[in-house]
Amino acid sequence: AVIHRSEGVIGYIYCDFFERCGKPNQDCHFTIQGGRRREDGSYQLPIVVLQLSLAGPRASSLPALLSPGNVDNLFHEFGHAMHSMLGRTRYQHVTGTRCSTDFAEVPSVLMEYFASEPRVISTFARHYKSGEPMKKSSVKALCDSKKMFAASDMQQQVFFSMLDQVYHGQHPLQGSTTDIMAQIQKQYYSIDYVENTAWQLRFGHLVGYGARYYAYLVSKSVAAKLWHTCFKQDPFSREMGTKYREEMLAHGGEKHPLKLVEGMLGQKPSVENMVEALMLDLDDNLQALDT
């Protein structure tokens, strides 16, 4: 149960964290019951599932320990879950993550910034036996390690987005999907294509998103702007958290994403300021590594 200190229970999250036989090997969030305004004025509480594929304890004396990647995925999917919990829409088919794809990944990508922030990690990262917190130097090293290839990661996202656009663009394609992939990779990515490989056949987002994979870059730019403007100075700010809930998460798909972002940041998104936000993020990563 998700409990607000004055509003009481505002929704429920089923946590299905561990791998088991027959379970899809996928980290995701999905809705069992969307929130909605009932005819009598009461609110139907949202019910969602937060699904991960964590390995269970390796021995009876050990708990299930999470890798840094597991923590990132947990925070990411929890961002989706909180979007559903904090949505307060009139209709359930537009609540929480049931919104424009261009905005759907913003809350989850924003949570990744919290998962890479030393002040946040220090609140929970402790030795499973002694309870001793991680050393500050270790926390910084962990956070810095996530920033080392940020530019390469962003370039890869540009490559994936362009490939998605071409695959769903003008047909017939001028060659096989592998031929097209090799050509786009050469044009947009600095790492060469490896002959006789066809990883695109296992990249489900090319089907599930269908010409909308670019939404990850759009969401990344909005999340970067949110982090640096609203949460970087104080990731535990209740004032900013409340504003974020009321201006962005509460509206789901009832309000246009442009209006959501403008209401939160006081600035209407444009190609120019979205690119600027991505570049600011890269510069900030570089500065953090230099120190």
From TrEMBL:
Its cofactor is Zn(2+). GO terms for biological process: peptide metabolic process; protein processing involved in protein targeting to mitochondrion. It comes from the Eukaryota. Binds 1 zinc ion. Residues 2-279 form the Peptidase M3A/M3B catalytic domain. The keyword Metal-binding applies. Pfam families: Peptidase_M3. Belongs to the peptidase M3 family. This is Peptidase M3A/M3B catalytic domain-containing protein.
